[in-house]
Write a structure and sequence with these properties.
Blueprint (H helix, E strand, L loop, with lengths): L2 E2 L5 E4 L18 E8 L2 E6 L6 E5 L3 E3 L2 E4 L6 E4 L3 H22 L3 H23 L4 H21 L7 E2 L2 E2 L7 H16 L6 E12 L6 E10 L4 E2 L4 E5 L11 H4 E8 L7 E11 L14 E11 L9 E6 L2 E2 L9 H6 L7 E2 L5 E10 L2 H7 L1 H6 L2 E3 L15 E11 L11 E8 L22 E2 L10 E8 L10 E9 L7 E10 L11 E6 L1 E2 L10 H4 L14 H4 L4 E10 L6 H7 L8 H7 L5 H6 L1 H14 L1 H18 L9 H11 L5 H15 L7 H8 L1 H19 L4 H20 L7 H12 L4 H5 L4 H13 L9 H16 L1 H4 L1 H21 L3 H14 L7 H27 L6 H24 L2 H9 L4 H19 L9 H25 L7 H15 L11 H11 L2 H16 L11 H8 L4 H22 L3 H16 L5 H8 L11 H5 L5 H25 L6 H18 L2 H18 L2 H14 L6 E2 L8 E2 H18 L3 H17 L3 H20 ...
Parallel strand pairs: 15-22, 36-37
Antiparallel strand pairs: 1-3, 2-3, 2-6, 3-4, 4-5, 7-8, 9-10, 11-15, 11-21, 12-13, 12-14, 12-16, 16-17, 17-19, 18-21, 19-20, 23-26, 23-31, 24-25, 24-27, 27-28, 28-30, 29-31, 32-33, 34-35, 34-37, 35-40, 37-38, 38-39, 39-40, 41-42
Helix pairs in contact: 1-2, 1-3, 2-3, 4-29, 11-12, 14-15, 17-19, 17-20, 18-21, 20-23, 21-24, 23-26, 24-27, 26-28, 27-29, 28-29, 28-31, 29-32, 31-32, 31-33, 32-35, 33-35, 33-36, 35-37, 36-37, 36-38, 38-41, 39-41, 41-42, 42-43, 43-44, 44-45, 45-46, 46-47, 52-53, 52-56, 53-56, 53-57, 53-62, 56-57
Length: 1904
Amino acid sequence: MWIPTEHEKYGVVIASFRGTVPYGLSLEIGDTVQILEKCDGWYRGFALKNPNIKGIFPSSYIHLKNACVKNKGQFEMVIPTEDSVITEMTSTLRDWGTMWKQLYVRNEGDLFHRLWHIMNEILDLRRQVLVGHLTHDRMKDVKRHITARLDWGNEQLGLDLVPRKEYAMVDPEDISITELYRLMEHRHRKKDTPVQASSHHLFVQMKSLMCSNLGEELEVIFSLFDSKENRPISERFFLRLNRNGLPKSPEKPERHCSLFVDLGSSELRKDIYITVHIIRIGRMGAGEKKNACSVQYRRPFGCAVLSIADLLTGETKDDLILKVYMCNTESEWYQIHENIIKKLNARYNLTGSNAGLAVSLQLLHGDIEQIRREYSSVFTHGVSITRKLGFSNIIMPGEMRNDLYITIERGEFEKGGKSVARNVEVTMYIIDSNGQNLKDFISFGSGEPPANEFHSFVLYHNNSPRWSELLKLPIPVDKFRGSHIRFEFRHCSTKEKGEKKLFGFSFVPLMQEDGRTLPDGTHELIVHKCEENTNLQDSSRYLRLPFSKASLLGTNNQAIKATKESFWITSFLCSTKLTQNGDMLDLLKWRTHPDKITGCLSKIKEIDGSEIVKFLQDTLDTLFGILDENSQKYGSKVFDSLVHIINLLQDSKFHHFKPVMDTYIESHFAGALAYRDLIKVLKWYVDRITEAERQEHIQEVLKAQEYIFKYIVQSRRLFSLATGGQNEEEFRCCIQELLMSVRFFLSQESKGSGALSQSQAVFLSSFPAVYSELLKLFDVREVANLVHDTLGSLPTIMHVDDSLQAVKLQCIGKTVESQLYTNPDSRYILLPVVLHHLHMHLQEQKDLIMCARILSNIFCLIKKNSSEKSVLEEIDVIVTSLLDILLRTILEITSRPQPSGSAMRLQFQDVTGEFVACLLSLLRQMTDRHYQQLLDGFSTKEELRDFLLQIFTVFRILIRPEMFPKDWTVMRLVANNVIITTVLYLSDALRKNFLNENFDYKIWDSYFYLAVIFINQLCLQLEMFTPSKKKKVLEKYGDMRVTMGCEIFSMWQNLGEHKLHFIPALIGPFLEVTLIPQPDLRNVMIPIFHDMMDWEQRRSGNFKQVEAKLIDKLDSLMSEGKGDETYRELFNSIIPLFGPYPSLLKKIERETWRESGVSLIATVTRLMERLLDYRDCMKMGEVDGKKIGCTVSLLNFYKTELNKEEMYIRYIHKLYDLHLKAQNFTEAAYTLLLYDELLEWSDRPLREFLTYPMQTEWQRKEYLHLTIIQNFDRGKCWENGIILCRKIAEQYESYYDYRNLSKMRMMEASLYDKIMDQQRLEPEFFRVGFYGKKFPFFLRNKEFVCRGHDYERLEAFQQRMLNEFPHAIAMQHANQPDETIFQAEAQYLQIYAVTPIPESQEVLQREGIPDNIKSFYKVNHIWRFRYDRPFHKGTKDKENEFKSLWVERTSLILVQSLPGISRWFEVEKREVVEMSPLENAIEVLENKNQQLKTLISQCQTRQMQNINPLTMCLNGVIDAAVNGGVSRYQEAFFVKEYILNHPEDGEKITRLRELMLEQAQILEFGLAVHEKFVPQDMRPLHKKLVDQFFVMKSSLGIQEFSACIQASPVHFPNGSPRVCRNSAPASMSPDGARVIPRRSPLSYPAVNRYSSSSLSSQASAEVSNITGQSESSDEVFNMQRMLFNHIGDGPLPRSDPNLSAPDKAVNPTPSSWSLDSGKEAKNMLDSGKLISPPVPPRPTQTASPARHGTSVSPSPAGRSPMKGSMQSFTPSPVEYHSSGLISNSPVLSGSYSSGISSLSRCSTSETSGFENPVNEQTVSLSTYSVPEEPVRKESKTPPPYSVYERTLRRPAPLPHSLSIPVTSEPPALPPKPLLARSTNLENGSRRTEQVPRPRPLPRKVSQL
């Protein structure tokens, strides 16, 4: 039986549970669960991550944790009772876990690894906290580390800032909003600006000295030197190095590491240097022999210097090498560092080029305790501490120091009877009063322990040595008295013995007879001469002698005075126990000299502050002792001295001595009667303030009033204790009188001088400190009243001294922060005066920062939901006094422009934030009663209206994203909660006061606008939150958007007929709300649209306004990325969605205006489909077809369905920008043309729009024209540019603007030049089918034709499409898909190449038009495309498959021609026809003949640098024909059986025969040309071709051409073989008997590149069976191999820029329907380098009459649609492939050729060759025989079977095309006659008239 649990409420899953049992709940390890019931080892409950799913799970899988339960029962909430830091850590790590994995996916490796380390650290710290064995301090430290890491991680991951108090998360409900703001700001500031440390420390580690001439031990002395003041500022760090230059004691880090402590910020400047002096210990001369002298001397070695500025960058200098300079002149050693600093180092030598001192330096910041914590390893290993010289900037009480610093400066000595100067060494000892040496009190520096004696270094032969060696003598105080220092002077001999001979001594006592220590400064000591063996052990013998020259001034001792020898030292005492000040000693010993008291008290101000604080307690005892002695006489003096000492402690240097004085007052002060004198003197001073001229002293007194009151109060308490509380009333009166005097002085206004106001300011700044003292003696209410009266006496005039106003406010601020204000009783007394001053300042907008701080403090004390009566009354007072002014202040400061400086801006934001927090605090504290009172308090509706408008405006400001930093979600949610609560209160006032006859549009509009932007806030979009964050927000606040949405609905319903005022203005805002994916909110809001439509229908009979606004807003919102699929359904669906409201469509269907409503919904839904697609596409990074297609779809929708011109134009420009980005310049031009067509050449003014300025329509159209021309030019679509040039030129001409007309004509001319001179690539075209429901709406189940990019072949295009649609599946066949594919929840792509069918054949068929021009018409303005699929019909003949091979030809018609505004357009219509095998054969032969003619023509005109392409083509055709190519056609179609079965094909059979004969003619002519140009090594192959050609002719049954057919002459355009080099070959076709209708003008290349994606196995089988191939002899085979070697070395390399990409990489396979020899064709194509320029065209000529009367319709020129072996009708210069039967079978074709129209250049002189063509006539046989000899002469070994010999046997007339001209050049290839060919059966050959060449007609702009 399931029992509800009592204690087992919360647990953690310790093993994953699959939940496979009935009702089982699946759990993962680490999940937290809430337990509801238990039963026999099972629990029932839910996982906290998904509370909606409940189930059972084993209790053994759960580790129970302590928790407390809130709201027991159905909605109980469990809160774990663990440490809040642990709870936060756990939830945060869970959130981080998922985001951490995402970092890995997004490849953010750096953050991924850093976060991983931080997470591990947090887990380790968490374990330490959970174990619970930490001390209190250590626990605080661990929590600090945890929270720091949590904050860092949250910041890096863009999560929210967590407000914390003492490391625990704060519930915003438990503290006031101002306090919450402060916590947030504190954490934000902490994150942004690190606090500048005031204390700094320099860490120095000595590593080694690198120098070549070592060999002696060294001493290295570091110190800090101030070059500005020329003095050292630190003690010395002293260390010893061994002979190798390494530290002597490496195992003791404190010997070679030191920390220079307590550097102030003022000492971090570039003129502070680290100086290093190096002393060697050894022989006198560095180069002396080892045995010269055994005595060791300290001798100067070198010096190094480094500026501390190098360390200020903050980087650790690990391996710094300091240059060491050697001193050449020892007399300058004392200032060597100064000279190096001054860059006077030229006089010193470096110790070596690569020598130097290796040190490590680091600058540390913070107090010494912080440094010990953060760099604990440094201190644990050991480091010596090097102090500053003297006291640090801040002297700490309890600091015990007694250090005497002695600097041995210099000496002046006589020669002493020697010829050279002495080598002087000074030895120093400390002798105590008993004459004994004091041991271990001479410190050389921080690295070494103190020594008993000191030996100076020796300067060689110097009688005036200067040492400047600094020593520290840490002598205890008790040993100071009676001790002295003795200096002994010895001469160091350099002789072998190395003796040190004593020749004199000096001494100096440490303390004078009066108790003062040796004064600071330089002392000139007397050098007393003595003998070498003099015994100085008995100090009493010399102590009676004078010690310094200064002491001789008064005496007359001639003997000593005569001495010239002197010794100088400098002393400096740093002691907390001893003084050198006589005045101080006199004061402390006042009882011994009572007569000096007045003088001592006067001199106290002259005593140094450090001397006073050293003896602070003694000094205070002295002062109060004197006061007790004679208060009448000394009262005023003592008071002044006390004031001086109190103010001394205000100095930052002595600030830390305040606690010492506090302790003195509490524990040591004993002046029970002092209060009377202190009050009396203080009152006397206050009374004199208004009269006194000089206020400085009085201001000093007022500044010290805090401590004066402390003394007064403590004195009174001591008196009360002693007397049992006597004279209490008298004391109260004294205090009252004192404060009366104060009030009088404060109430005075400063007239003229500002001295009085300064005194008032000084009093006010220190007055709040007195409150706590008064509270020790008086009741809280009494003190509050005293303070209230005192502050109330301040003058209220605001225009008086500004500085005083600021101080006044600071005083108010301190009052609010004081202990007095925290008591509710005193607070109620003080609040009115505080609010009064605040109100005045806010009204004047002065001191806003201070006002904000005071207000924050006021609200911090008023906790949330505090329902105490006193608090409610306080709120009443604050609302009355401040609410209005607070609103105005926020409006004022947010409307100001923000200051530019970053510091100022931060301050500005702080003020705004604080005021906002205060307002929110106030509003949160207000109850129903407060709101009611507030609203009732407005006397008129205008006041209420102004208030509501004001507060709504302020709320709108609060909602702004920039109001708080982006990670302050906690603060935003609290603010929103307050706003929505307030709005609910105020909406009642709106309903009651501003409806019906009092309706006010402005206030209602403001309300709705506020509600809309409230709902749209980013911080309320719960869908974007993590599940845990969303759950927390919903638990605490619910979904505030829904609450506000319901309020909007309710208010809208109340409007009644006033709704019309808001239609259509509110459509946009409301629509924005409905786009939020919150079902409840949508269900509330969508009925409002129905209501709007209904009201609009009633008003105007339609809802066009609603529709227009709806569509405009939808567009702008969707573009911003809002809305989703569900939203469209909500608008559209018949079924009611989500809640109680039916869908909009359902509601509309009940209305009378049903039809127009449903139509609107349908339109909106279709628009949304396109907009959603557009939005999704625009999220992609790169511009791709999807983006462009989507924009086109939307653009067309706006034009056709909505007729919204402005939106249409906007999307035109969006599309234009996309095209430019993708470099689709032609498409960009066509796109802009859409806008251009909307404009007229008029002077109508146009407004500023998009990027266009305000201008006339003419100007904009002109600008558009020029931009479009520029884009057509960049897209190489020059023909279209020419048309626009003409248009704009007409305009210029009509306005007589000849300057621009000239420019336009020149531009037009340049475009013509570009057509003729520049190459253009012909693009490939691909048909793409998008099948399946997963495609965007505008693509779904549609087929398109796409214009490929330059050089883009099928495989590349297919790959591009698959990249754009990564989830799509490529279909491997070309068949139409079935319905299952259409309806599949997937994406299928079907892609294959298609061939363009040019719209106009006229230009393409006309003779003599260059290929450069024709190429444009082949691939532009194309509506129709086709592709072919071969198949077998009927029984398949294995012997000859051509009999049953049919082709299914599909034509695709597009909705718009390509190119256009897009690279792809949808297919509008498909047409499918079948082509019979015979028609196929005809087309293949036509194409092959055309290719042959082109190659022959190119060869004739020497456009081919290499004859190999022609050789290959001839070989392919002749070899295939002999071995079964053409003969297969004969077998298939020329047999009796076929002719009888297909009587309708008679004409076609005749046509096929004619083509075969024409091919034979062309081949014969081609062989003649070939013989002319064939190289010697290819002769055998040529011979083989000639032999095979006769075999072919015999197989065709041709003996003589005239026997079969009267040859139709093949014309030279100019009547001669000379052909213009750069014109294209004409189409040619011999005459036939009848007009043979053909279905298509294009050819079928037989050799294809097989795409793995599109080749079917059946087709492969067919390929291998059809073509018969000949076996070549070995010789010929070798020839062919040589030929391919030639081809490999062809004239153009594979990287030639003129080649299209396909031609650079060709992988041909012989087709099953090829007429060529497959093997040779394949080999030829494999080389990929068969390049030759095209044959130029000729002007149109009329043809000679043919045998039959009807002329043959020529095939229009076409492009080879695939990479085949045959050249297209108008060939591309890069394709010389033999023609096959198949065109562009989608099954077999992998790609098709993207040919280049022309590689040739045409100059004016060359083109003139065909402007005036000469008429042609047929040439007889005799003409043919003339050139035989020249031909033979050229060829040294003529072939035995010459084509010419065979043809000369019979005198039958030959066509002109085969006649050999007289010139030695080979004949030109004849052009094909035009369609309009005149025929005459009776006449023979006769002259034909030339047909004039018509100029190509320009297309209209509208067609572009």
